[in-house]
Amino acid sequence: MAAETSGVWPITWNPSAPRWPGYPKVATRTPGAGAESVRVARDFTAATLARWEIGERGEDIVVVVSELVTNALRYTVPCPGSVWPRWPVRLGLLQPGPWVLCAISDPSDEVPVAKEPGWFG
């Protein structure tokens, strides 16, 4: 397991700790590919962070997840009439310590390419 090989998390049980700190908290969701998918991902993230008692920066994390899911849907979901990809867009949240890792997977075989930001005007 990652916790055992990474050395990041303590993997021994501490009876004086309020809970066993050995492995991170994990939550996953497949929000779908429709127009409501970004809202589903946002609501799931907010509820998960509330359950994990993450107050500070929680709204920022929800915005990041919203942007990541929007990009995944925008650039990987096929046009109407196309064949659906091998797997849908998926959202994962991981809390291995005092931070939260947000991960989005999509069905694209393409590697993202950074672009120069445009100017609004």
Secondary-structure map with pairings?
Blueprint: H1 2-6, E1 25-29, H2 37-51, H3 58-76, E2 90-95, E3 101-105
Antiparallel strand pairs: 1-2, 2-3
The number of helical elements comes to 3
Topology as H/E string? HEHHEE
Largest sheet: 3 strands, antiparallel
Can you give the mean pLDDT?
78
Global Rg:
17 Å
Main sheet: strand order: 1-2-3
The counted number of beta strands is 3
Task: Report the principal-axis shape.
Answer: globular
Short description:
This protein has 121 residues and is α+β, with helices and mostly antiparallel strands. 32% of the residues lie in helices and 13% in strands.
Account of the protein in words:
- The protein has 121 residues and is an alpha+beta fold.
- It has a domain at 33-106.
- Helix content is 32%, strand content 13%.
- It has three helices and three strands, in the order H-E-H-H-E-E.
- The protein has helices at residues 2-6, 37-51, 58-76; strands at 25-29, 90-95, 101-105.
- The chain has a three-stranded antiparallel beta sheet with strand order 1-2-3, covered by helices on one side.
- Strand 2 and strand 3 (101-105) form a beta hairpin.
- Helix 2 (37-51) runs antiparallel to helix 3.
- The protein starts with a helix and ends in a 16-residue tail after the last strand.
Comma- or semicolon-separated keywords:
121 residues, alpha+beta, globular
